[in-house]
Input
Amino acid sequence: IFAVLMDDYIGSKQDAREWEVEPFRQQLQYFFGYDPEKDGVQISAMSVADVNESIWAKLEGKYEEKETKVGADLMRQYERHILLQIIDHAWKDHLLAMDHLKDGIGLRAYGQKDPLVEYKRESFDMFGMMCERIENDAVRFLFLLDPMTDDDRQREEEKRRREQEQVFRAASQ
Output
């Protein structure tokens, strides 16, 4: 995804004045939860290679911090769980869309098109879009994931207990 974003907004344009810095920054924020301006990275003052290297290094570092925080084994479990949920949801949506396509494909014959050829073409396009969505969502959720350590969980649990006790005390008075 990062390579596609780089190519779409920065790398495909020869002149730095043509770079679409703000949309690129917004996409980095959306997919990776990273704002280069907050980190002091001035995209418009850099070369394409420098932008690519510096931002990619920051993104890798951010992901490695998460892995270090919870450990490699737990991070792989998170990755598997998130990926399974995303694939499951996308596949259900795809099957529903295929049903809708199947229901309306006969109308293509009125347009002088072979319904079977159109069904194959459209279903192939839909499958490609589903795969792209799975990839995009997986990257986004994994980078936006904020895993908790055992100490963090214990502190959160203690905080919830104290809040519940306060609510019960207030309700019983």
Q: What stands out?
A: Helices lie at 2-11, 21-32, 48-70, 72-104, 115-144, 150-172. The chain has a mean pLDDT of 88. The two ends are 56 Å apart (CA to CA). DSSP finds six helices and no strands in the chain.
